[in-house]
Structures are given as C-alpha cells and as structure tokens.
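Entry:
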Amino acid sequence: MHIRKGQELINKLKNINLFKDWSVPYNKPLSTYKNLVCITGFGYSGSGAVIDYLSEFSNTTILGHHDMAFSQAGKGIEENQNLEIGFICDLGGIMWLENEIINSSNFLHKDYAVKLFLHIAENCYRLGGMYNDEYWKLTLEFVDKLVDYKIPFPGFLKQLNFNYSGKKFANIGSELCKNVRHRMKYIYYLKPLTIDEYRKIAKEYIISFLKTINSKDFLVLDHVLSSSVSELQRKSDYVGDYKFICSYRDPRDVYAQGFRDKLNCIPKDTETFIKWFRNNGIKTYIDDDYKNKLIIRFEDFVLNYEETSEKINGFLQLDEINHTKRKEYFVPEYSKQNIGIYKNFENQSAIKYIEKELPEFLYIGLGGG
C-alpha cells in the first residue's frame, strides 16, 4: 500500500518543472565539427600557446579556459567560449562515476555518486550558455539509463551541501534527488552494468551534448581530458576518436615563474616542486601509447615557430589557407620573454638542484642552457 502511494507521488513529481526560474532555452545549432581536438599541459606549461595558435584558424571552435599568460596583450577568445567541460574528468564527473557504478558494492555509495554527478550537472546548467535545456534533458536521460528503480525515503539523508563554482546550493536541486515542495528524498538503485555498457551509455551522452554546440570543422577542447593519469585510450571510449596535443616547458622556468607571478598552484619548496613536476606532469603523457597524440615543447613553438606550426598543422590536417589571423593571438616574439627566466632567478642553488633531478625535461636549444 505504502509502496504504491509512494510510486504515485513519484509519478506526479515527474511533471513538476523545478528549473522554471532559470531555464536556458535551446536553439538547435548546425553542429559541423568533424574533428575533435583535446589540448592539455601541466603547471603553466604553455598549452595556452597552442590554444592561441589554433584560435587563429577560421575553421576552429575553441571551448575551455583561455589562458592569456603567453598571449599578446588584449587579444582573446569570445567570452561565451570560456567554459570548460568539467563533467567528464572532474571529481563527480562521468569517468569518476564509472568507478563507483562498476566497482562499488555499496548501494549507498552508488546512490551518492549519482547525486553528486547531478549536483555538478545542475551547476553547469545554472551557468547557461551551452549548458542549456537540451543539455539538461540529455543529462536526465543519461541518469535514467543508469537507474534501475528508485524509492522514496523521507529523511534518509540530511541536506547535502556542496561548495561548487564559488556558490553553495542546498542538496542536489534536481528532480531525481528531491522535490522542492515536499523535500522528498530518494534512494536510487542502479542497474548492474558492465564497464562496456556504462561507457557506451556515457559516450552517447557526451557526443550528443557536443553535437548541440555550434562549432566549425575543428572542435578544440582545452584541458577537458586532463588528469594526473593520462589514460588517453580509455578517454576515447567516452568522447570517440580525438587527437591529443600536450605541451611542456622547462621546469626551471615553471619554478621561477611560480615565484615571479606568485602562483599558488606551483610548489615553492624545491623538493616538493620536483615531486610535483615528475609525478603529475608531462611524463604521464609521454609514456602513454595512445596513437593520436602529439607532444611539443613550448620553447620549440616560440623559437622554432615555423617548424613546430607545420608539425601541428600536419598532425591535425589543418590547411594554412584557413590561418586567417596568423600571429594575432599567439605571437612568438612576445612569448620569448617567458623563456629562460630562471637565469635571473635569485635562488640559483634551487635551479641547480632542479637541473640535477629533472635533467630529461630541461630545454637545451636556442635560448636554452
């Protein structure tokens, strides 16, 4: 009796629009992207230079954070493109969700994982832009494919509060997690999916979302597939075929810039910096055997611009005829000032120690030493 009434209530709640105050209309664009390109770096490694360069082509669309560190002052990408797609690799995102759904034997952990994902998705939805009504529709359809059944359970969990994107929202805020009027909580029991089954569902969701973005021939995603463990082949199971470019930079300059620009994300203690650079930096991508990857040095891109740009064009099959804003966003002459800054760093003993511990990453070439 109680179960039937509970299900009747759930059916009624499905028709309630919980987002009517901030719904983001969706006008279907003509998505024409044929090539997916993912760019990454680590710790001010110069990946922004690659993004700048690719933004100069008339047939590219750039999504993600646009780092101006190596750009010509005053130049940049359109504001509405400065959104990263964080729900794929971030904590609580698609790839993290796989581990909880497949490997966890605790149904409460699975339930919590889905709710955390929905919390992240909802906050993306609140940002608007490409996170519109169609995005939210696809998100709910994705979760629905994971959930086997759900039961109402009033008072099961105290209100969950997550601090995300600088804002705190009560609980998850979506229909699948609560009802605004009745504060009804649910437990979600997930289907017993295999890894292949889950990845297939997730891939359909992600690609369907990417197809809602108005893009040109090359859709370039900045840091979307970044993580301390590369797993580039595994990530292709989620986004389909893609080409991957990673740039890296002399650790001595990275270390010196951390002090010069007061960058909290770069360790100041030399021992810690070396561990940070060695264990979480470029090496994980260099060692990855993914076939569609290109590793470049920031220094080569600046000092050997023509050769390196030809290498990038050949890898992506970019036609120089579409390079309509050549050297407007990425200006090698401007970026030279960021090479060899370690030479004027006051703590040269720390630089010598980095040279001793990270010799394979030092840049020895034009302007290097």
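Residues 44-63+226-320+334-369 form one domain.
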